[in-house]
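Ops channel
N.P.: pipeline sanity check, posting one input/output pair.
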């Protein structure tokens, strides 16, 4: 009797958090482009343009991204390392300025269970096409749309629109050239300048290198 009751209790507990619609493979890397328009309250609109190499290691709970971020015509090179196993984030600007800040819990790269299925479509046409499944969800007031490959759940596109903390946000992300695995795990190792880096609660990232990204598919 007991052996039947216990699994039932566990099952109903698990049901309160709906299972993700789908998750990526545990380790992958690729290239993410971002174009965003951000309007802080009472200020001028800022256009952000970024292209980052992204590395995701769900097994060891680490995410890294590096590449140029252009904000209002000014470009800085950003290297972001999130080590959730140590709950530490490193932000390295132009290879010479490192700050450390705390991180919350690791969130696997999944389409959450409470996302709404928007539909299926494909990129391309008759000669070649890529089936996509799109979902919609609200995360911290922002409307998030994500398109993933119908097979494999690889992220393809993501659109984040709305207003949060008095800031109007419209962001478009595209993911390309994704490969399984992480070729060089040293991308998760912070450079030596981070050994003595200051620890801040509120790291001031260049707009676009973080912004409202945490609402979407990755927590970058
Ligand atoms: C590093 O960045 C912080 C925060 O933006 C800034 O206060 C500091 O002056 C910078 N340090 C260097 C060496 O550029
Ligand atoms: C994507 O892959 C193609 C084909 O291998 C390559 O030519 C291109 O440079 C890659 N682009 C990026 C942004 O990684």
């Amino acid at each position: 009797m007991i052996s039947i009751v216990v699994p039932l209790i566990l099952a109903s507990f698990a049901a309160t958090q709906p299972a993700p619609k789908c998750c990526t493979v545990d380790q992958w890397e690729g290239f993410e482009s971002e174009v965003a328009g951000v309007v802080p309250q009472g200020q001028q609109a800022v256009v952000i343009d970024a292209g980052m190499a992204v590395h995701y290691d769900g097994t060891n709970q680490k995410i890294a991204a590096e590449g140029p971020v252009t904000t209002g015509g000014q470009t800085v090179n950003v290297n972001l390392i999130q080590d959730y196993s140590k709950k530490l984030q490193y932000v390295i600007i132009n290879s010479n300025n490192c700050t450390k800040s705390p991180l919350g819990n690791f969130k696997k790269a999944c389409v959450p269970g409470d996302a709404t299925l928007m539909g299926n479509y494909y990129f391309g046409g008759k000669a070649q096409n890529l089936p996509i499944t799109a979902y919609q969800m609200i995360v911290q007031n922002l409307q998030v749309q994500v398109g993933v490959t119908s097979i494999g759940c690889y992220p393809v596109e993501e659109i984040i629109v709305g207003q949060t903390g008095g800031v109007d946000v419209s962001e478009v992300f595209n993911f390309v050239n994704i490969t399984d695995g992480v070729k060089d795990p040293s991308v998760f190792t912070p450079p030596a300048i981070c050994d003595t880096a200051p620890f801040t609660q509120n790291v001031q990232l260049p707009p676009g290198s973080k912004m409202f990204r945490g609402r979407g598919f990755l927590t970058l």
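N.P.: looks fine end to end. The radius of gyration is 19 Å.
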